[in-house]
Amino acid sequence: MSNSFLTKNQNNKILIACIVGILILFTNSIYAHGIGGKDALFLQQNSGQAMSIFIYLGAKHMITGYDHLLYLCGVIFFLFRLKQVAIFVSLFALGHSITLLAGVLSGIQVNPFMVDAIIGLSVVYKALENLNSLKLIIKVPPNPKIAVFSFGLVHGLGLATKLQEMTLSSDGLILNIISFNIGVEIGQLIALLGALILIKVWRDQGGFYRHSRIFNLLLMLFGFLLALYQILGYFLI
């Protein structure tokens, strides 16, 4: 009886930790996602190759990229095998890298508010998929792998818009942006490792499926809030 009670307490603590984590990400979202302060100053004043620093800044940006992390947590939530995780994360990283590099280097211009609104809706999409509710909206949902790759393209474009807001030196720009992208992928792996550990502990303690619906409903809620925030920004700013 005491062991069962302890397990329930542990499950509740893990669920609360996940909810608090999402709240912290959302509360800090206005400040965390952009590149500002000393980081923005360095990027704009830098002249020449600075690969190690750009890798660091890319990793830092991804680790504080609340929208990317929420989406990726949704992607890996029901994946049990590392091979599955590797496939889906690689597809996301590929799409993310294509539009990040192409957006900055070719100067593709898109409205940052609209892109970030779609990124917020990508979180909603993944939560609905996890809740088996996607068919209520889309009669024939796309293959999950195609969806992850496609949203990776959008997420990469969102990050490209942040870099496009700055005046970056053309001297060493290609290697610097490639380095930044490498840093982004490193940061993504670090963040995912932490998420995978937390999810594994949650599964091992039991009660994972009992609370999974609550988690994904919260994920959907925050995705809607992120999208709404960006849409309001589009019309008011």
Key features?
single chain
Q: How would you characterize this protein structure?
A:
Helices cover 80% and strands 0% of the residues. It is mainly alpha-helical. It has one domain (2-236). It is globular. The model is unreliable at 1-6 and 27-32 (pLDDT under 50). It has 10 helices and no strands.
Beta-strand content estimate: under 5%
Structural class assignment: mainly alpha
Radius of gyration: 19 Å
Mean pLDDT level: 84
Q: Which parts are unreliable, with pLDDT below 50 for 5 consecutive residues or more?
A: 1-6, 27-32
> How many domains in all?
1
Helix content: over 70%
User: Count of helices?
Assistant: 10
Principal-axis shape equals globular
What is the number of beta strands? Answer: 0
- Main sheet attributes: strand count, strand direction, barrel closure: none
Give the termini distance in whole angstroms. 57 Å
Secondary-structure element series: HHHHHHHHHH
Give the helix/strand layout:
Elements: H1 2-27, H2 29-32, H3 37-45, H4 51-63, H5 66-76, H6 82-106, H7 112-130, H8 144-164, H9 173-205, H10 208-236
Helix pairs in contact: 1-9, 1-10, 4-9, 5-7, 5-9, 5-10, 6-8, 6-9, 7-8, 7-10
